[in-house]
Amino acid sequence: MTPIEAINNVAKAYQDLAVVLMAVADKTIGVPVAQAMTVDADKPVEEPKKEAPKAAKAKAEKPAKGPEEVITIEQVRAVLAEKSQDGFTAQVKALLESFDANKLSAVKPEDYKDLMAAAQDIK
Questions:
Q1: Tens of pLDDT along 107-123?
Q2: Is residue 40 part of a domain?
Q3: Range(s) of the domain holding residue 83
Q4: Residue 43 CB: number of other CB atoms within 10 A?
Q5: Are 47 and 97 members of one domain?
Q6: Could you read off the pLDDT of 61-107 as tens digits, one per residue?
Q7: Beta-carbon count within 10 A of 115 CB
Q8: Measured distance CA(30)–CA(32) in Å, rounded
């Protein structure tokens, strides 16, 4: 497992934990402390029925097209570094400039997918 994969796994675990904590918070709003501290292990934990305002807003802004892979800056950096180490430093620099950036951190996150695809085509 690469360090990037490990980081992604940890991030996913934190997201899963956040869902559970939100469900607990929703179930315990207005419940007396003594009752909230009682654990009923026989009942399965229900998913929260209402979404966080930011999540609802994001869904409203983006039409559902199915699951879309999110490309991170670390993934793009790994591909660009590999190409640079293989002797394509000039092409990597030109590719970044084609995205109006002089360094990777200046590239817009929405362009990561296109940048990574273009970088993988460098031969």
A1: 999 999 999 999 999 88
A2: yes
A3: 73-120
A4: 7
A5: no
A6: 555 555 677 889 999 999 999 999 999 999 999 999 999 999 999 99
A7: 22
A8: 7
